[in-house]
Amino acid sequence: MSIFYFQAREYTRHAKQPLMATIAYHAGVALKDPTTKKRYGVGQKSRLLDATLLLPDPTPSHLNTRQKLWATVDSNFPRQGCLALQLVMIMPDELSV
């Protein structure tokens, strides 16, 4: 029997953890917060196989890296609320593309 798993998770700004720290952890990369100059690391994300950044076609070329994209999002949307959406899909080998 094949099992397919899908989850949508919202990223919001909150007092416990900055947005850049959350994104760095879930993407398994190191990012630097431009406002505080603090660097956030990857931690223990050894089971992460792929963290692809998918952008629509009309995205400006200066936002093509995770660091630049999330720094822009963090600075341009100062209010609380959903800033990003993470889609997690786990598919069995039978459903691979």
Brief digest:
The protein is of the alpha+beta class and 97 residues long. It contains two helices and four strands; from the N terminus they run βαββαβ.
Q: Could you characterize what this model shows?
A:
The protein is 21% helix and 22% strand. The protein is α+β, with helices and mostly antiparallel strands. A two-stranded antiparallel sheet has the order 1-4. Strands 2-3 form a two-stranded antiparallel ribbon.
How does the SSE layout of this entry go?
Blueprint: E1 5-12, H1 19-27, E2 31-32, E3 39-40, H2 66-76, E4 82-90
Antiparallel strand pairs: 1-4, 2-3
Brief descriptors of the model:
97 residues, two-stranded antiparallel ribbon, two-stranded antiparallel sheet, alpha+beta
> What letter string, H or E per element, gives the SSE order?
EHEEHE
Percentage of β-strand residues: 15-25%
Q: Return residue spans where pLDDT drops below 50 for at least 5 consecutive residues.
A: none
Question: Helices and strands: which structural class?
Answer: alpha+beta
Question: Could you give the count of β-strands?
Answer: 4
| Rg measurement, Å | 15 Å
Average pLDDT, rounded to a whole number, is 77
